[in-house]
Amino acid sequence: MSFLLMFTLLQQVTAQNRNISGRVTDRQTGEGLPGVTVLLKGTSNGVSTNSDGTYTLSVPSAGGTLVFSSIGYIQTERPIGAEDQLNIGLAVDSKQLSEVVVTGYGTQERRDVTGSIASVQGEAVANLATPSFAQQLAGRAAGVQVQAPSGLLGQQPRIQIRGTNSISSSTSPLIVVDGQPIFTGNTSALGNGFSNALADINPADIESYEVLKDGSATAIYGSRAANGVILITTKKGRLGKTTVSYDTYIGVAQTLKRYDVLGAEDFITISNEKQRNTNPAPGTKLLAAPYFDANGNQVSTDWQKEIFRTGFQQNHVVSVSGANEKTNYYFSAGYTDQDGVVKNNSLQRFTFRSNLDTEVKKWLRLGMNLGLSRTQTLGLNTSPNALSGNVTNALSLFPNVPARNPDGTPYQDAGGAIGQGNNATGISFAYTNIIFPLENNIFRSIGYRILGNTYLEVEPVTGLRLRSQIGTDTQMNDDFQYYDPRAGDGRALQGLVFQGFGPSVRWNLSNTASYSTTFAEAHKINAVIGTEYQKTKDYFYQAQGTGLSDRALGPNSIVSGTVATPTIFGGNGQQGLSSYFGRLNYSFKDRYLISATLRADKLSSLPAATRLGYFPGGSLGWRVSEEPFFKSSGLNSFWSDFKLRGSYAQVGNTDLGSNFPYAPLYGAGKYGAQNGLAYTQFGNDRLKWETSKKTDFGIDLGFLNNRINVNVDYYRNNIDGAILAVRTPLSLGVPNNSSYRANVGSLYNRGLEVTVNTQNIQKEGFTWSTSFNFSTNKNQITALSNNEDIISPYNITRVGESIGALFGYDYQGVNPYNGYPIYKRGNGTLIQASTDRGARQSQYYLYDANNPSAALVTTTPLAASDKFILGQTNPKYFGGLSNTLTFKGFDLDVFLRYSGGNKIFNQSRQQLLRMDFVNNSTEILDRWQKEGDVTSTPKIVQGNGAFINKEGEALTRFVEKGDFIRLQNVTLGYTLPQRFSNVVSLSRVRVFVQAQNIATITGYKGVDPEVNSNYSNSSNNNIINQQAGVDFNSNPQQRVFTGGLNVAF
User: Fold this and answer.
1) What pLDDT score was predicted for residue 2?
2) Which of 30, 398, 561, 883 has the most CB within a 10 Å radius?
3) Phi, psi (degrees; rounded to nearest 5) at 195
4) Rounded to a whole number, what is the distance in angstroms from the first to the last CA of the chain?
5) What topology is assigned to 15-92 in CATH?
6) Chain center to CA of 884
7) 584-593 average pLDDT score
């Protein structure tokens, strides 16, 4: 009887329940999520998902609500309907994912961090069509500036964290990949090739970026941390079954903007007017005349069409990843092929990555991270002063002559210059037909790279980890350049062949002991001590030849006997760094936070007396929101987090200009006719580090259960002992006006940073999140060598001013009576410069604004004392704004960034108004022509540009605001529902379209407000830091449209 009763009751219970099953996936990637808790709301009835994200749960037939929760994802509830299957995609919780951050030789919970660290997840920028990962960070993190100097592939971007932190040394941050410090910058074996070290790393392999900005965060890196640190963590597998992924995009790139230059008819008009104004007498021979093709059509050549193009771009990545309880693995192979918007410019990259981590014993782990790459970049001559420089050439050439002969060969004269056509004379400066060097010259750079490390980690007792890691960054650059002897820059040399090999090896060995524990439920300790040894050795071998005897052999390599004047040279250098460091983090009741760091570095590039340096740092934090008074006040119902923090540290800069800047060096020399030894470098045995003293005060706020997060930082960085060139006293008898390096300069950067992250809407089927950052920076020089100005053609570095401020003359417009340009002297008086030939040539006259037609009174020419500061070249503010929306299977990301407060000297405008027999910009059409004309463009006169435009000098006439707002990226994707993916046995299928560099709102008249000609054409830190803000015939940025596919098996 009892048995029958129990059976009956069991039947009733069973009848009241049913099984529901389904699969939980990552909403963004579509991959199954293991270990997700699936709970029937209001009960303890729940299960965890399997390795592929599937689950089965017994639920009441009457229904209910399922709650899905997992670390790193937003908890989501779904009502139970009549169906027996319930699939769901979980959205990433950006706050949870950032709870643990990489801090250098370890990790730390975000809530306990008292320094300033910005995080960027790799998935946020994974599919951007950029040649290097650095460009993906632009506008994504407060305080970080990433500037692409032009649209050329292979040129390294300029990265700065919290301003320009040196006057003559590198201002690039230390970049560490999986614990291995890497080479950055232009690694070309020829010094002027297209070899961006950051382009060797496949962005698709990157899991996250951590940007260490303040002293507390960077002090653990000591002497290398003056410019900040970027920590890159590459991908690892996720717990669950093996996942095979294929990610690809294909697209096209176009120029964002081109130069406005004259067509044939306007060119003829302007050229002949220049000539008539030179000699207004009747019968003056005209310069330009129309040219007609075989069909009788007037020729008007757009030379920019001959140097720019629509470039095809593609990227493919295949990866295999997974993890179980003991082993974690990630393997990938990538192929990138990008044609630039500039003809002859392309980048082709092959990459392979293998990340493997395994638990041998419960107390022993072994791991390896290995990246291999081969990157080939094809470039071209982009020098703004070269005969073969692509932009300078194309903008200067006659538009009233054809680009090619009827047989398809470039139209040029016997001397290699552009053909004269029906013009009265040849082109000024003998510019060559740009088609010829583009089709015949070669600029090729091939880089091979091994980047990786292996480690062993032992945990003898709980919480104590002993880790030993050895890593290397080994690269070899094979560069080749060839100038055809028939035209352009190669003609005067009868051809040139230049080949170089540049192996570089960096070994890094670190040993650390870390300990983490919590005791008495109130005290949390995280500590690390360690040693590190780094050795860098680089070589270069170069061979050069001119006077080619056989042009056919030149484009291939340097072959013995093919050149008349061979030159072979080479060298090597090395640098060593040994370090000891320690860091202690302490938290009491999650309220009071303390961090202390000390590092000792010993650098071989400094003299023995100053080689060892100590770099301390510390920070304090107070989480007010954990105080009892805060909780009892009821504020925490909407104010979920409130933390105050402050930090201070001293760090250094290891970029000292050479491997042995302190040592006196000698080389072969002559005194009269006598051979001997002479100084090549005057030594300084007192040379020291450049020291950066970083102070930071910050506040972290969270509202509405941290759906709104606000971070504010105020920082000041005082740089003392900046290394500058100091003139050697004449009394020492050192010849050749020698100088030596000394710690005589100082400067500071200070600013404010604001970051706001919000989860605006988080609902099933629809999410919307926003990220905004805003930064300001003020840079000022406080000391120079003898407080003497450092002056270059267009810039000045002066005490009390920002580094590299624009420096030149104040242009006041045009005299409406005679068309002369007007300038203001340093004493405030106005003068006008004659544009005429004859008796008035090269004369300056006083100018009366109230009487423009007054009799001319001669005065002295403009002098150096008449120059003014025309504006600072570093932006005063910058930032970015992104909005990410998902609706069912759709995802939309819209990202814009902005910058402003800086000035640009548009030297391109100045050059395009030249008074030579070359083409001009359309701006010249607004020139002064007759008495009474009101314009800003003076009277035009052939060959008198030095007076009309002050060529070679900066003028307010060509100084423009660099402010801009750029719609940087828009991505629209769609992930197929799981039921459709299952049909083809795929766990995820996502298609997307994307546009980059879509539109720019700016008042700047050049091709792009972010260009930096001196950065793109130089690797000299003096030029890069002190001569910024100059735009001279830069190649335009590219606008990219792509379509892609993400597939997972």
Assistant:
1) 46
2) 398
3) -145, 90
4) 55
5) Immunoglobulin-like (2.60.40)
6) 23
7) 95
